[in-house]
Amino acid sequence: MTKDLFRTFSNDFIYTAETTPAVATSLESSLKKVECLVGVADAINITDAPNCQPKLSSLVAAGEIKKMGLDVILQITGRDRNRIAIESEVMGCLALGIDKILCLSGDKPPEDGPKAVNELNSSDIITLLKTMSDGHLSDDTEIQNSKNIISGCADSIYDHNNDGYSEFFLSKVNLGVTFVQTQYCFDINLCKQYSEFIQNHNLDKKIYFLVGLGPL
Fold this sequence. Notes:
single chain, 6 helices, methylenetetrahydrofolate reductase [NAD(P)H] activity, FAD
């Protein structure tokens, strides 16, 4: 039984873990990496071809991980998909009972690397998911058995020191996200400043924050 994430605000912490599917045609190694987290993590955050490297389909992996009793947050980027592909992917997510999606623009490919699509950026995807939650595709086609989508966006604590970044981040939040996933930050003073920023904008009373932690 998965924990009911992002429903009511409380003092309880939510613990998630990130995983990247393998370069493989079998699910075995991808599932083995997370089986130790059953009953420990509240959800698994599944990446979408990070660093522009092809991986086993994150949606396929997400569906199987959910069967293990773990909740899932699926990352979807606009780098590799146009609007049609994103809408199809999201409907597939909902058909599998996956309703939590982290909306990302995606890592930028190198100049001599694969060509990016980038029809939609992270803000555009958030807006698209709201439209789909309301029961329609972007061309106003009605979605049968439409379901609510819990969307999230990413944040970089370090980048809040850059001019204009905080305003850009708040613009994404104001599109209606439910949660924020931060990248790693190993500077405790910056983390304290970030906490003050969250409180000063009353974000701690509006949305959830999943703060990225990892070993040095």
